[in-house]
């Protein structure tokens, strides 16, 4: 079945290649759990990731983001070009995903928010871990504009997490901190885990293993919620820290959250270029091709349980052009 899926996908991509110019699929990943997660069983675990990466290695020509940006600029993209990206800097990227990538001879680009290295935690994970750890059967979430929600079952916890995330996502950094403190009290959870994100030496290990490290700010703010000067400082300080850790230039960037017009604008794209990056990725869906704005490249998160659906979605994504691409920058 797996072999057949690979052959069909390759044939489909070759047929698409004959009628369309070379296109670049950029995949987005976040966590890769060692084992299936009880609250989010559909998220990637080591076994599924291994299966996906075997398919990718057999079917696509995988480049780092920096390599792909050079090839896009030169008009020399290989057929079936793909970039694998990981956002945020989860420790499981090093502990679980890296051995899989190496096993399949693949390089990937890891965009790391430096403020969470060495024991930090992103606000969304604080929400998830509060709900994971609570011993209560229901939570009074009126403080978040929600009703009392049941949390006895894993499925209930997932629903509560999703509702809380949507309430907290667009708050300021300070407001988010307050919200997490309040949620911890409501959940009756005294301490949250401190090992979710990479340690400094793990970033260095990734770089030494031939992986690419990209910028992702310090605190992962929504850039559009900051002044341009604050946004600049977030982007520059993240870049400098990563360059110091790796003793090497960091010249690719991923916008936090990454939705064009909602999380960042053309002004931020110009800023990223002015700060010495060679290109940047968004979360707008689609494939890239030569001529696209290198500072607003689209990406794709292929959520899917089965390999057959995963490969079909990658094929469909090859056709996904100019539908939700980022608007052009004011000046180039
Ligand atoms: Zn991110």
UniProtKB/TrEMBL annotation:
Any one GO BP annotation for this protein: carbohydrate metabolic process
InterPro entries to which the protein is assigned, alphabetical: Glyco_hydro/deAcase_b/a-brl, NODB_dom, Polysacch_Deacetylase
Key word Nucleus present: no
GO cellular component: extracellular region
Location of this chain's protein in the cell: Secreted
SUPFAM superfamilies, A to Z: Glycoside hydrolase/deacetylase
Main localization of the protein described in the UniProt heading: secreted
Segments forming domain NodB homology: 80-332
Stored CDD domains: CE4_NodB_like_5s_6s
Protein name stated in the entry: Polysaccharide deacetylase family protein
An MF annotation (GO) of this entry: hydrolase activity, acting on carbon-nitrogen (but not peptide) bonds
A Pfam family annotated for this UniProt entry: Polysacc_deac_1
């Amino acid at each position: 079945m797996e072999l057949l899926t690979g052959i069909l996908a390759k044939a489909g991509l070759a047929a698409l290649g004959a009628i369309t110019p070379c296109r670049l699929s950029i995949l987005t990943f976040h966590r890769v759990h060692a084992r299936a997660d009880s609250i989010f069983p559909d998220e990637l675990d080591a076994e599924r990731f291994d299966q996906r990466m075997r398919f990718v290695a057999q079917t696509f020509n995988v480049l780092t983001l920096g390599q792909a940006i050079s090839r896009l600029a030169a008009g020399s993209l290989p057929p079936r070009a793909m970039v694998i990206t990981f956002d945020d800097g989860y420790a499981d990227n090093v502990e679980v995903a890296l051995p899989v990538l190496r096993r399949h001879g693949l390089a990937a680009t890891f965009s790391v928010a430096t403020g969470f290295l060495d024991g930090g935690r992103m606000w969304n994970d604080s929400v998830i871990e509060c709900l994971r750890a609570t011993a209560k059967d229901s939570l009074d979430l009126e403080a978040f504009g929600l009703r009392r929600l049941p949390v006895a079952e894993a499925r209930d916890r997932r629903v509560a997490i999703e509702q809380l995330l949507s309430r907290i996502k667009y708050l300021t950094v300070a407001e988010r901190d307050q919200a997490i403190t309040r949620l911890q009290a409501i959940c009756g959870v005294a301490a949250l885990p401190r090992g979710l994100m990479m340690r400094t030496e793990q970033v260095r290990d990734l770089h030494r293993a031939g992986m690419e490290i990209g910028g992702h700010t310090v605190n992962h703010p929504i850039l559009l919620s900051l002044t341009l000067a604050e946004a600049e400082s977030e982007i520059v300080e993240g870049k400098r820290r990563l360059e110091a850790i790796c003793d090497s230039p960091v010249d690719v960037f991923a916008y936090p959250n990454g939705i064009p017009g909602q999380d960042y604008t053309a002004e931020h794209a110009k800023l990223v270029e002015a700060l010495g990056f060679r290109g940047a990725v968004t979360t707008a869906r689609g494939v890239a091709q030569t001529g696209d704005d290198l500072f607003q490249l689209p990406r794709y998160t292929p959520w899917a349980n089965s390999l057959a659906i995963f490969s079909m979605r990658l094929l469909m994504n090859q056709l996904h052009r100019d539908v939700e691409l980022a608007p052009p920058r004011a000046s180039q």
